[in-house]
Amino acid sequence: MPRPAACLFDLDGLLLDTEPSHAEAWSQAAAHFGLQLGAAQLLQLRGRRRLDCAHLVQAWIEAGSFRPVASDELLALRQPIAEKLLAQAPAMPGAEALIGRCQQLGIPMALATSSSREAVSLKAAPHPWLAAIETRVHGDDPQLQRGKPAPDVFLLAAERLGVEASHCWAFEDSPAGAQAARAAGCQVHVLRPEAIAPVLYPPGVRWLNSLAAVPLD
Ligand SMILES: [Mg+2]
After folding, report:
1. How far is the CA of 64 from the centre of ligand 1 (A)?
2. Whole domain around residue 76: which residue ranges?
3. What does the pLDDT look like over 148-175, one tens digit per residue?
C-alpha cells in the first residue's frame, strides 16, 4: 500500500477512549426526562456533533412522552456530567505511538472531529502528545457546513493540509464518521467497536484490529 498524502484522525473512540463517557452523559440526561436510552440508540449517537445528538435524543424523548423538550435544556443537563467524565478519558491503546510514527515519517496529520474546540481542549489536556496534530477541524468550526455523516469535516481537513482527500487515509470508529470519510473520497481505516456490526459501515473500508496494526511502513 503506498503511503498516504496525509492522515486524518477522528478523536472520540479513535484516539481517545471517550465513547463510554459520552454514552453515560447522554444516558443520564435522557433519564432526567424519563427515557432510558437503549444500546442501539447510544450507538446511533456515536460520531455525531453534540447538537445533532441533542436533536436525536430530543426526538426520542418526545416520541415516548408526547411532550416537547428543549434541546438547550437537554444540553445544559448533559454538559456538567460530560465535562467531568471527559476530562479523565484515557487514550486508546496505540494512539500515542501511531501519532509518533506519522510524525517520524513526516506524514501530515489533521484532526477531523465532531467535537467542539472547547470540548477537544478539555479532553486533550491530559494528552500532550495530541499537540503533534496541529491542523484541526472541530464540530463548531466556522467554516464547517455539515457534521458527520456528511463529508465536510474530512474535505475541510484535507483542504487545510493542501492535499486531495482521495489521497488521504482517514481513521474512524463510528459508522457516521466512516460514512463521512468515504463520502469525502478518503481511504478509510476503521477501528470497529465490538458492539457495532460491520454491516452498519459503508462498503470499501479497511478494518483495523488495533491502532498498532496501521500499515504505514
Ligand atoms: Mg469517533
Report:
1. 28
2. 19-86
3. 999 999 999 999 999 999 999 999 999 9
